Structures are given as structure tokens and as C-alpha cells.
Amino acid sequence: MSDLLTVSHVTKRFGGLDAVSDVSLHVAKGEIVALIGPNGAGKTTLFNMLTGVIQPTSGEITFAGTAVPGKKPATVAKLGIARTFQNIRLFAQLSVRDNLQAAMTHRYVEHFVPIVLRLPSFYRQEQVATEWTDQLLTAFDLTDVADMDAGNLPYGTQRRVEIARAVATAPEMIFLDEPAAGMNPEETAALRTLIQRLQSEFHLTVGLIEHDMTLVMSLAERIYVLDHGKLIGSGTPAEIQQDSAVVAAYLGGGVHA
Amino acid sequence: MTKAKVKVAAAWFALMLAGFILINVLVVVGVVDTFIENMLVTIGINIILATGLNIIIGFSGQFSLGHAGFMAIGAYATAIITSSLPTVLGFYVSMLVGIVISVIVAIIIGIPTLRLRGDYLAIATMGAAEIIRVVINNLKITNGAAGMYNIPPLAGWPTVYVMVCLTTIMLCNFAHSRSGRAVQAIREDEIAAEAVGIAPTKWKLAAFVLGASTAAIAGSLHAVYIQTITPTDFGIMNSVSLLIIVVLGGVGSMTGTFIAAIVLGVLDTVLQSFGTLRMVIYALALILIMVFKPSGLLGRYEWSFARFFTKKEASHE
Questions:
Q1: Taking CA atoms, what residue in B is nearest to A85?
Q2: Is there a contact between A115 and B189 if contact means CB atoms under 8 Å apart?
Q3: Shortest Cα distance from B23 to chain A (angstroms)?
Q4: What is the spatial distance between Cα A104 and Cα A87, in angstroms, rounded to a whole number?
Q5: Across the interface, do A110 and B178 touch by the CB < 8 Å criterion?
Q6: What is the pLDDT of residues B85-114, one digit of tens each?
Q7: B232 in a domain, yes or no?
């Protein structure tokens, strides 16, 4: 399989601090790849560079043959990269349905005149978008809450809405930033099935930042480990569990697993 | 279009037609004299202005205090063009010209200022409107501070009524489309909106330009109805009173804007007999509403025939 995402020698410097330094990695189409590391290791900074929120100081990022740095987040989203946020960011006062539909803005481009005059082309497109929304609502088990304000939903459901909204942009790759944070074991188990379905049903490539190691080890096909902005290890879950540098980073130096 | 949609559209059309006939009857019977007609037209113009401002403030969440500036552009475009072309055609041409100039000015003002947030944006848009006013105040073609007078009376209340209906239909259609949702998404969370592919500057600008163009329409109507305009008619206080209508009705509710514009318009007229006490009572009414209903009269509630019909059907079953 060819690489969907390639990151080569990416560095992000905040003043004198190298938040991410000389990181290279690659993700193949259809993979679930996890990025782990202690707090402050630079995981979210790396995610932010991949999604165009911040620009790398140096290095290259290519997604499906297109360079990501220099593009704005909205443009990156159009390339086919979607994401969720560490602290959930929903459109709180919009209904779940409207949250999903807002994410289709760039996919079904509307034109001003058909909108305000409600020409037939408006209704045709509206119907396509509505069908796609209904499919997503069913797939993510959100039909019952479709007309509720997203901000009033329980935490676990909000996570699901956020993931559904990311899928609504029809991406090729989805980045999940600590999706299991604050979830109880049942919710985490449901999340695991959901992420697996992203891969199997929606044919998405998944990039995952997560602290819940059981989740990471059971989901990820490959893992990259970041510490103090540097890549200190990579490999399959089994390899990572044996990696002394990784264990040292998590448990402190000199400890043997 | 499905059957339900036709029904909803028909209901709205019937409502508009009923309103038109009602006013017509009242005029013929004599209940609506010149004084009341004046009030109705003022309310209508305020509705056009405030619904447009609500798209900017309530839907895209951008705090603009420069709405009167765009109204001035429309008013002066009409005043200048109808002075040499005093026909109904001339009036509509001038309205179009006003809209085009407003759109251009809104884009010029919007691109740099819409990057600002909240109170900074309010100050920037207020400054922009003041610039428009000062320019008008100093141009020869606008007759400077003396203003323009003897503008031909090319529009009565029926024209205003039809324009209120048209602009409202357009603005509501925009608000209730996916584009409208994109604009609301930016209000809710700009970072998340960007992450799902909504370019914030583009959509904020779209809402701003739309609001500005309806303000120009209101300005044109104002010019031909009042027949005299001076730069002081479009000062900061006018922008503020439009803001009051939007906030009072409920930010983000078009129905609320309608009700607030009508309530304040009537209140303003009724209180005229109280003389100086008028402003005190007016202010008191505002304070009371804001204390007891901080989200405005209607909050985010929106009247909908679609919901009304489904409810009725549900209760029949």
C-alpha cells in the first residue's frame, strides 16, 4: 500500500523550545496508527501541524501527494483530513443534525441565488445532503438525539457527534485527539468498536492520540512514541511494549520492564 | 418540493397577503391616517435593517455597529439618482446602485475588520460607518451637511411592505440553508468550523455583505419616503437603535426582530405625546426587558409553519 501521509523531518520551535523536533513518520492508506507519549511530548502540536492549525518551523508534510504546510485549516479539511479535538468542540447551540450538515459546507457547495430564491437545484442538493446526514445519524446511533442541541448531550454522545461530524466532511483520514479522555470503561469499549468501524465501514485511515494504553494496544496497527518532541520509538504494539526507551519514557529512566 | 413544503410556502404567502389586505382596508376605512402610516413605514424600514443586522450579529456572531453607514449609502444613491431620473424605474435603478456600492464598501471594510473579534470589531465597524458619514458630509454631489431634499416620493407603504417581505424571505432562506448553518458554525466555534472545512473569513464576509445590501435597500426606501436626508440621519445612534431592536427581539431570532421592531415602533409613537418623558419611559422599558428576559423577547425561538403543521397533524392522530 502506498503512503497516504508522509511527515519528514518536521520541527516546530516555540521560542527556544523544540515542541516537535525532527519527526518523520508515514501512514499508509487504511491503517490505524497511534501516536503516544507522556503529557507535553508534542503530540497535539504535531496533530495541529498535520491539520494546518499551526505551521511547522521546518520539514515537509505531504498528504495524498499534496503539501500541507502553508495551507489554512479549512483548505486542509478539503484535502480530506478531518479531526476531533482534545476538549470537545461542537457547535453547541446547533442541533446534532445541523452540526453534521455544517460539516458538509465544502462538499455540497451552494450558490447564493438558488438559496435565497429556493430554486429547484437548492432542493435537489438539500435532499442529497439530508440523505447523507440521515445515513450518518443511523451509523453513529444518533437518530434519537438528531434534533437536540449538541451542547446539551452527555459527554460520551458529544464525542460520538464530534466523530460523526468529522466523518461528515467525507475525509480520507481522520485524526482523533484523545477520544477516550474522561470516558468510563463501557464508553471506551463502545468507542473502540466505533473506531474499528471507521476503518472497516467508512474506509478511513485513522490517526489516534490516546493515553488509554489498553485501547491503543488493541486498536493500533502501528504506534509512534513521542517524548520531549522527539520520536523515540515506533512499531507494532508488541514491539512497542518491549521497547526499553519507550518504557523508560513512561516509567522513568533505569526501570526495566 | 414536497407537499409539506408547498403547504408551508402557501401559509407564509397567505399571511403576507392577509397583512397587505388588512393594512389596505385600514387605510380605506381611515383607521390608518398619515401619522400611523408613517409609523408603519418606519417599522417596515427598521425591520429590513434589523433583520439584516441580525444575520451579521445573531447568525455569524460578528458584532457590527456600523449598519447605519450602509443605510446612508443606499439613501444617498437613491437621492442622487432620482434627482435626475425621477421615475419609478429610476428609483429601482438607484436601489440597485446603492446595493452594489454597499456590497463593495462592505467587502473593503469587511476583509480587514472581520479578523477582529467582539468589541474590537464593534469599534472598527463603528469607525467605518463614521468614515462613510464624514465622506458624505464633505462631498459636493451629496450636498454636504445640508443634505438632500425634495427627493421625489416614489414609494409609499405598499412598496415598503413588499420590500420587507422580499428581504425577509431572502434572509430567512439564507439563514435556513446549509450556508446559514456554516455561518452559525463560525459563531459557535471558529476553530472547529475551520476543521470541518468552513473558511471563516469568507463566510463572515458573506453574512456581512448580505446584511449591508439589505441596509442599502432600507436606505433607498427611507430616502423616497421621508424625502429629505442629511448625514446626521445616519449617525452612530441609528446603528445603536438597530442593535437595540436585534438584542431586544433575541439575537438569532428573526421572529424576535420582527416583534421588537413593531413593539419599539409603536412604543416610540405612543410615547410621543409624553414629550421629554418619552425617552425615560422608553429606556425603562428596555431595562426591564433586559433584566427579566436577558436573551431578548424570544431568545432563539423562531416561528415556523412547518412545525405548526406537524404539531397539528400529531394532535389529530
A1: B192
A2: no
A3: 26
A4: 22
A5: yes
A6: 999 999 999 999 999 999 999 999 999 888
A7: yes
Checking phi first, is residue B143 left (phi over 0); if not, alpha (psi -120 to 50) or beta?
Answer: left
Q: For residue B182, which residues of chain A lie inside 8 Å, CB to CB? A: 102, 105
**How many domains does chain B contain in total?**
1
> The pTM is what?
0.89
User: Which range among A156-170, B26-40, B164-178, B216-230 shows the weakest confidence by mean pLDDT?
Assistant: B26-40
Nearest CA in chain B to A129: B178
Question: Is the CB of A110 inside 8 Å of chain B's CB atoms?
Answer: yes
* CATH number assigned to the domain covering A3-251: 3.40.50.300
**Which residues, in sequence order, are bridge partners of residue A201?**
none
Mean pLDDT of chain A: 89
For residue A230, the SS3 value is strand
Q: Which are the contacts of B220, defined by CB distance < 8 A and separation ≥ 6?
A: B74, B75, B77, B78, B91, B94, B95, B98
**Strand pairing of A230-235 and A222-227?**
antiparallel
A113 touches chain B (CB under 8 A): no
Longest Cα–Cα distance of chain A, Å, equals: 71
Domain residues of chain A, as ranges?
A: 3-251
CATH of residue B256's domain is 1.10.3470
